[in-house]
Design brief:
The chain is of the alpha/beta class. The chain contains 8 helices and 6 strands. The strands form 2 sheets. A 4-stranded parallel beta sheet has the order 3-2-5-6. Strand 5, helix 7 and strand 6 (182-186) form a beta-alpha-beta unit. The radius of gyration is 17 Å and the shape is globular.
């Protein structure tokens, strides 16, 4: 089928799009949007993370779980919200850690497109969600697809930084060869867990030091 995804990702992931699970996934997602709405993000933004960060440009992967399920929040980038939307609590904590780690004060917007356009793949494990119902599309098969994304990046690229926050994201380290890449794990930045070790993890300075060491431009967080 013709998936509306950025060209370099279409080439890197071409085998996935013809597999039975992906055909079933797209059928379930289409039905959800047509019959069980509202569903977030808007259909044209499902693959937005890939639109803002091509396969060739990936330097960092930040993994979330599923999209925000409130109106107007999700726009296809993990932890990110559009301009003008209140910065969610987890992202507030991410901003606090950035300020503590490298001294950059929190911006007024929670829109992280500026990160994506520098090579940060802001990937959710599940790419759609029913309004008001967190985790509602986790059974659709999205995780098989996004696991394939992680594996493809890990296998075909070198010196990528994987920021894995929380036990769920941390489990994806199994797909990453740590002799080729940097894996940074910490508790989730949610207010429920950030104090258990996300605060003080210093992932942002570690990331930039690693990128610089391997001849890449650091991220302007």
């Amino acid at each position: 089928m013709n998936v509306q995804i950025e060209d370099s990702w279409r080439e890197a992931l071409h085998d996935e799009f013809v597999k039975d699970y992906f055909l079933a996934l797209t059928s379930d997602v289409r039905e959800a949007y047509l019959e069980n709405g509202p569903v977030y993000p808007p259909p044209k933004l499902i693959f937005n993370a890939f639109a803002h960060c091509s396969f060739d440009e990936v330097k960092v992967v930040i993994l979330g779980q599923d999209p925000y399920h409130g109106p107007g929040q999700a726009h296809g980038l993990s932890f990110s919200v559009p301009d003008g939307v209140r910065v969610p609590p987890s992202l507030q904590n991410i901003y606090k850690e950035i300020e503590s780690d490298i001294g950059t004060p929190p911006p007024p917007s929670g829109n992280l497109e500026r990160w994506a356009e520098q090579g940060v793949l802001l990937l959710n494990s599940t790419l759609t969600v029913q309004a008001g119902n967190a985790g509602s599309h986790q059974a659709f098969g999205w995780e098989q697809f996004t696991d394939a994304v992680i594996k493809t990046v890990a296998e075909q690229k070198e010196h990528v930084v994987f920021m894995l926050w929380g036990a769920f994201a941390g489990s994806k380290a199994a797909y990453v060869d740590e002799t080729k890449h940097l894996v940074l794990k910490a508790p989730h930045p949610s207010p429920l867990s950030a104090h258990r070790g996300f605060f003080g993890c210093r992932h942002f300075s570690q990331c930039n030091a690693y990128l610089t060491e391997h001849g890449q431009t650091p991220i302007t967080w």
